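Fill in residues.
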């Protein structure tokens, strides 16, 4: 039997190590804009909830506490504009990346099945398909806005359709009309539609819309699942707090499978998630931090000769100087600034870099100063 790793691409971030070493050697240290990892403190109320629940010696449940399910369902209705969601229509998961990588396998997909995702995309969609031995299928980001492309898109064997809006890496936001067309197409062809909406609360030049919004899905969650994370909105990447909402039949299957697999969100994290989902103030405060950093970096990059495309939402600037992405990475590394090459997200990104806006104010200011030199 061949190793499972034979099915997988090279882990992309390993290729960035030499450039990271160059950037780290800068006299004033590295400005790491390559990974969108939060750097600001976890809000105090969330920390208190975590520590108050620290004495949790027993196993938590896979489905989560009643309080957690209530919090998720309430947030889905209030923030996504969805119709009333019940406990059967929500499911906590151990971070959204785990879910993306494991979902095709947990759905029972395998050889002969196809999994579709945007051509410029988070690499884990393809990884999940390959782990299940399913066929990965990349589609253009504007598929559901282009009649000719949609008419030519083959549904044969397609079992799972990933949407990602706001997009990682491009920051593109699908319109409500695009989402409605995606929902109608998936339902017409009997394809499960899973919408990765982890950056939904970070819209800048456009207002992101959930696939579960009532006027998008027609008031029915049938055939639809939305993926959400607290990593960016609440600085909880270290907590691995995320959840699904949508079709009760699909989530019920996943619940049984995840029970057998022991995929449990730790009890203190469940308690912290309840508090995080019930408080919008800390989200607004974090948005303001990111907005300032985004504006500063965008202005500096444009003055340095970059063109920014899309980037109307999420925590990234999709930037190009119309040159191979690794040349751009090398130039910026020489200035002590580390960014992600666009080809990490597919061949269509080979002349772009992804610039995260998640560094501290001090490091962002350092990057801005270096781009002016």
């Amino acid at each position: 039997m061949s190793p499972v790793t034979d099915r997988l691409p090279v882990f992309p971030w390993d290729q960035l190590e030499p450039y990271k070493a160059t950037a780290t050697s800068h006299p004033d240290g590295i400005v790491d804009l390559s990974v969108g990892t939060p750097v600001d403190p976890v809000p105090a109320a969330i920390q208190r909830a975590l520590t108050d629940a620290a004495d949790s010696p027993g196993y938590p449940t896979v489905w989560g506490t009643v309080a957690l399910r209530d919090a998720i369902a309430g947030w889905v209705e209030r923030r996504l504009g969805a119709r009333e969601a019940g406990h059967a229509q929500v499911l906590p998961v151990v971070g959204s990346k785990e879910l993306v990588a494991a979902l095709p396998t947990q759905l029972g997909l395998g050889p002969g099945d196809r999994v579709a995702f945007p051509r410029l995309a988070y690499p884990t969609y393809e990884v999940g398909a390959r782990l299940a031995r399913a066929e990965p299928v990349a589609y253009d980001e504007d598929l559901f806005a282009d009649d000719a492309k949609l008419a030519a898109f083959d549904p044969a064997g397609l079992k799972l359709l990933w949407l990602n809006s706001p997009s990682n890496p491009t920051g593109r936001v699908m319109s409500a009309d695009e989402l409605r067309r995606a929902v109608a197409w998936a339902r017409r062809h009997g394809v499960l539609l899973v919408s990765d909406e982890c950056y939904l609360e970070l819209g800048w030049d456009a207002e992101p819309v959930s696939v579960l919004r009532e006027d998008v899905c027609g008031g029915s969650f049938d055939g639809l699942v939305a993926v959400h994370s607290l990593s960016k909105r609440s600085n909880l990447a270290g907590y691995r707090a995320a959840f699904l909402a949508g079709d009760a039949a699909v989530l019920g299957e996943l619940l049984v499978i995840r029970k057998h697999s022991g995929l449990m969100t730790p009890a203190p994290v469940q308690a912290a998630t309840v508090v995080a989902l019930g408080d919008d103030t800390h989200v607004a405060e974090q948005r303001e931090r990111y907005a300032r950093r985004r504006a500063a970096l965008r202005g500096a990059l444009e003055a340095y000769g970059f063109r920014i495309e899309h980037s109307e939402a999420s925590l990234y600037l999709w930037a190009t100087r119309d040159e191979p992405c690794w040349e751009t990475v090398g130039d910026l590394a020489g200035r002590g600034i580390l960014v992600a090459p666009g080809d990490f997200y597919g061949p269509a990104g080979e002349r772009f870099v992804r610039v995260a806006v998640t560094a501290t104010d001090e490091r962002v200011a350092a990057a801005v100063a270096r781009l002016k030199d």
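The chain has 13 helices and 13 strands.
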